[in-house]
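ZMYND12 structure dump, as promised
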Amino acid sequence: MSINPLSNPKGVKLLCELCQKPAFIQCTECRVTYYCGVEHQKTDWLGVHEKICQLLIPLRTQLPFLTSEEERDNRKQWLLQQKMDLIELTRTTGQKLLFEGKHDQAVPAALQSLKFAIDVFGLASINLVPSYLILGEASIGLGRLEQAEEYLMQANWTVLKTPECSNAIKSKLYRNLGLLYAAKGDYDEALRQLADDIYHSAQEFGTDDIRTAGGYYHMANIFFRKNEMAVADSLYTRVIDIWHKHLSGIIKVRTKTPLVARGPGPVFDDEIEEEDKLDEAQEAEAVQVLNAVLDIREHTPSDSWELVKILHALAMLHFSLKTLQLETNTARKLWKSHQKKKVKNWKQ
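structure tokens r here:
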């Protein structure tokens, strides 16, 4: 990240990426992003800009003149796919930062995802809701409950207007509403919202899926605060069981011994299993949840077997992340090289 002071060209209104106030500095890496000051540039860089810096260039630079209609259609489809990819990338990044407790850095990622979603789907689309939810959860984490409520009410209104809204989106909405009411100290209403979260998540993914486990986890936290330890313990146990089973499946696939040919001809494995990989946000969620429950178990009377199971789940998680990191570092280098080539070819 470097700073490039600028004076706005005559007739051109440059606005800060985060606050939309007049901008006075420019990102020197992409030269298509502007900020009102160093603080907002730093926040955006740490939150998401480092990941998407080069990807913004073709989206914010005037397109070269294309003579044929086919070329224009191809360019339009390419740009649309770029925006769709950026929506997914920025949302995953924002969710990951939330699980890491970096609520201030999650805001730029969520804002970027919202901008791209509005550009692609329009202002009233259900596809904007995931971005509103990240902004809402970030605001809860920052203690800005009124702002959080505004984001969540906007998400809720969009869901109500969309009969075909998926159970997955409804689940995330009710989970965030549960977190909002818990932050306000209204535990009864929080539990009702989280019960709706679990219901809709179970409808979409099943009762024993890691995407449903988050509802159990937050519900357990509320019972823990209410000092209803028996209920909290049972829910924490459910969460650990779900994550332990999921991680065991990943390790089983990753450590499976490949078949060895015992004669001429190709080797066919009729029982090939596809690894159910975790995305960045799910990795961060697993780290947060497992360590949080471990800390609770270590400081409260609990079954020693439960403690062992958490430790085993954490060991599997770290093994998975370590082996994946080696692959990811190589993939990241290749990806960055590929993006630079794409931008170079686009300019030509």
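The radius of gyration is 23 Å.
lmk if u need the other ones
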